[in-house]
Design a protein that fits this description.
The complex is a heterodimer of chains A (about 110) and B (about 120). In chain A, a hairpin with a 4-residue loop joins strand 8 and strand 9. Chain A is an all-beta fold and about 110 residues long. Helix content of chain A is about 0%, strand content about 55%. Chain A starts with a strand and ends with a strand. In chain A, the strands form 3 sheets. In chain A, strands 2, 5, 6, 10, 11 and 12 form a 6-stranded mixed beta sheet that branches. A 4-stranded antiparallel beta sheet of chain A has the order 3-9-8-7, with no helix packed on it. With about 120 residues, chain B is mainly beta. The radius of gyration of chain B is 13 Å and the shape is globular. The termini of chain B are far apart. Classes of the chains: A mainly beta (about 110), B mainly beta (about 120). The interface between A and B is medium-sized, with 23 and 27 residues.
Chain lengths: ~110, ~120
């Protein structure tokens, strides 16, 4: 199966630290899409980013940035100057036609 | 903004009951999805629908059925609820599908407890 691996089950950092969440995927497709979602304690999955495999430029959105490395099949997510409100479970996913193949998620705990 | 709503945030049912979970999206999306989420097992796709009256099985369809009579509404049905169906159920929708996987937008989830 072409899976998505988020090897970090749980990460705990102190507020204002930078933190990187890893995501490694498998695919035989030449064109595909990659996603990150955030699930805060309330439970609703919140969309963060969708990237096309042809676009290898890093993306920055405020304190969030994403590093896409096609050569290593990785799509890592960095939060700069973390805040308590960033505490959540973060999911990486790869598109497969209509569907998403999900990673297991990384629980991020930001301590004040 | 895309809005996906689910009929209940919390639901408690008895074993053997027929359970309906409703999901409505307001953005004219083609595709709708039902997932369940359990600790340690992540998100698992139950069923999805890419058009009205069309449905496809996901990874864990056993014990569930779905109905999509109107484009905006996708229902998940537990014909005879069992305790192992206690879970968080998440509905999602996306505008289009095919090779260019579109973004899925999620509802708030329904936490179902079967006693």
């Amino acid at each position: 199966a072409q899976k998505v691996t988020q090897a970090q089950t749980e990460i705990s950092v102190v507020e204002k630290e930078d933190v990187t969440l890893d995501c490694v995927y498998e695919t035989r497709d030449t064109t595909y899409y990659l996603f990150w979602y955030k699930q805060p304690p309330s439970g609703e999955l919140v969309f963060l980013i969708r990237r096309n495999s042809f676009d290898e430029q890093n993306e920055i959105s405020g304190r969030y940035s994403w590093n896409f490395q096609k050569s290593t099949s990785s799509f890592n997510f960095t939060i700069t100057a973390s805040q308590v409100v960033d505490s959540a479970v973060y999911f990486c996913a790869r598109g497969s036609n209509y569907q998403l193949i999900w990673g297991a998620g990384t629980k991020l705990i930001i301590k004040p | 903004d895309v809005k996906v709503t689910q009929s209940s945030r919390y639901l408690v049912k008895r074993t053997g009951e027929k359970v309906f979970l409703e999901c409505v999206q307001d953005m004219d999306h083609e595709n709708m999805f039902w997932y369940r989420q359990d600790p340690g097992l992540g998100l698992r796709l139950i069923y999805f629908s890419y058009d009205v009256k069309m449905k496809e099985k996901g990874d864990i369809p056993e014990g569930y059925s779905v109905s999509r009579e109107k484009k905006e509404r996708f229902s998940l049905i537990l014909e005879s609820a069992s305790t192992n169906q206690t879970s968080m159920y998440l509905c999602a929708s996306s505008l289009y599908g095919g090779r260019d996987t579109d973004t899925q937008y999620f509802g708030p989830g329904t936490r179902l407890t079967v006693l």
